[in-house]
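Troubleshooting log. The previous structure file for this entry was overwritten by mistake, so regenerating from the original sequence record. Sequence copied from the archived sheet and checked twice against the printout by T.R.
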Amino acid sequence: MEFKSLKNIESSFKQIRVIAFAFLVLCAGITGYALWNSYSFAEAQRQKIYVLDEGKSLMLALSQDLSQNRPVEAKEHVKRFHELFFTLSPDRSAIESNINRALFLVDKSAFAYYQDLQEKGYYNRIVSGNINQMLLVDSVALDMEIYPYRMKTYARQRIIRESNITERSLVTHCNLINSVRSDNNPHGFTMEKFEIIENRDLRTIAR
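Regenerated output below.
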């Protein structure tokens, strides 16, 4: 009877050890899940930004990794430059305003084109001839694998005169480097080595 009783005590200790071990594993699992869930919740809350709308109400905004949006910003930067630099109206002050805004987005390479056109009287002919020049960017090819980033822009120009409309093909190339964001350069890029590869007439339509 004594041997049987010892055997029962030993099996009871084994059961207690198994139960204790299972309890510890369960506690560790619950603690790990609680920590992971707390971290996920805190990370989700960090993505939320509350913006005060003119001192009246709070609006919820979501933060985003800056690098995820850089390709879109790069294309928009280049597109904006082309629209400002090549869209011209027969108004000298409007031309100068657009050119000045465009030159904040690029280095001196574009300024050389501006000076050359100015010396040739191109802008004077735009004003005196009452000519409107509009630019439509078809596409922007971007290579962000190598820094500085490489950009190639394909666009069409419409030169509108009283007698006809001329459509031209415009292809440009530049390098793009990161820069400081400002009111004049909201996307934080600077175009380098700007070059016009192609600028030729496609067709002329009589009005």
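Strands lie at 48-53, 57-62, 132-143, 149-160, 164-178, 189-206. Archived copy saved in two places this time.
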